[in-house]
Amino acid sequence: MKALWLVSLLYLTALWPAVAAQPALQTGAEQLQQYLPLLTGKRVGLLVNQTSMLGQQHLVDVLLAHEVQVVAIFAPEHGFRGDKDAGAHIQSGTDSKTGLPLWSMYGASKAPSAEQMQQLDIVIFDIQDVGVRYYTYISSMHYMMQAAAQYGVQMLVLDRPNPNGAYVDGPVLDLAFQSFVGMHPIPLLHGMTVAELAQMIKGEGWITDADKLSLQVVPVKHYRRDMAYSLPVKPSPNLPNDQAIALYPSLGFFEATPMSVGRGTGFAFQVLGYDKFGPADFHFTPVSTPGAALTPPLMHKKVKAEDLRQVAAQGLSLQYLLRWQALFAKHNEVFFTAPDFMDKLAGTDQLRRQISQGLSEAEIRQSWQSALAQFKRQRQPYLLYP
């Protein structure tokens, strides 16, 4: 036994230099020395939410502790605390903890007002994204960049890893289908961080007066885009874990169908189900829950479902859409009950038509390849990580 213990110790000791050589990842927000000097004497606005953490402290609290003049907090979809339903309007008000004004960017308007921007010298964006085009935090970043360019306010983006950063896939958005769930001509999975994307938005002139925008970014230290990254804070109420985030690119499209993706359960975006037909071995019943209080689809109905909580999810899969569309067709039921919304999610009407026409996944994917290759070339100057 003693000899076995000694061999194990020697083995671990031999491995230690390799393990110790891996430096710890540092988000942009954690690198205070890189950006605190930029804030000296400045009136600061923050576009942040519950993910804007430095360890156990929120960025707002850290900056206030360093006597930074924080003027106001801008709140995106789901609110500053990240507890509001998808699509629920966020009300402006006052943050109960800090007493700071709380200005909504997901209410009557999704852009800051002239009056708000004129009170600021610099705006910081620090929100954890999931790398999927229809996730709306990057749309809020777009509107803030636009306002900063218009009113001569500096913009600082504190970068965070993209948990889907290893993938560039899906249709590239056609600007004829531009909406808040798709602002830019990028693929569904763009493989970029928010700082890289901010640089691309400015560099490609996707906002008015892009050349007038003073944009600075603080990259993540010791990061590669193929690196696995488990989010320390859930980015929104219905993406509760790594599995939901990995499945989100594939399951988000089902929001344009009558089916449930598990909103109103403890496993949102990890199941697919319908009340009238489906697999017989797994069931659930959606109910009104915090973060899914606005009548989740099929609420209080027993749903026959596909359980995806243990599947190996990587990138974008069309098999779920193709399989369920075929099942709906077999039962003479309409699958895309919100076709216009499906087209906004896809950034094109071509995907919906291809699925309805019965094309295979390989045929559909082939139709994306030229645009994806062009996008990869176009994004190259803006990439910060290998």
**Helix/strand/pairing category:** alpha/beta
Q: Major sheet: order of its strands?
A: 5-6-4-1-7-8-11
Order of helices and strands: HHEEEHEEEHEHEEEHEHEEEHHHHH
The dominant shape is globular
Total E-strand runs: 14
**What is the fold named in CATH at topology level of the largest domain?**
Rossmann fold
CATH superfamily of the largest domain: Uncharacterised protein PF07075, DUF1343
Strand content: 5-15%
Classify the helix fraction into a percent range: 25-40%
Overall CATH architecture of the largest domain: 3-Layer(aba) Sandwich
Output mean pLDDT: 92
Model description:
By secondary structure, the chain is an alpha/beta fold. It has two domains: 198 residues, 3-Layer(aba) Sandwich (Rossmann fold), CATH 3.40.50; 129 residues, Alpha-Beta Complex (Aspartate Aminotransferase, domain 1). The chain is 30% helix and 14% strand. The chain has twelve helices and 14 strands. A seven-stranded mixed sheet has the order 5-6-4-1-7-8-11, sandwiched between helices. It has a three-stranded antiparallel sheet with strand order 12-14-13, with no helix packed on it. Helix 5 crosses helix 6. The chain starts with a helix and ends in a 7-residue tail after the last helix. The N terminus is likely disordered.
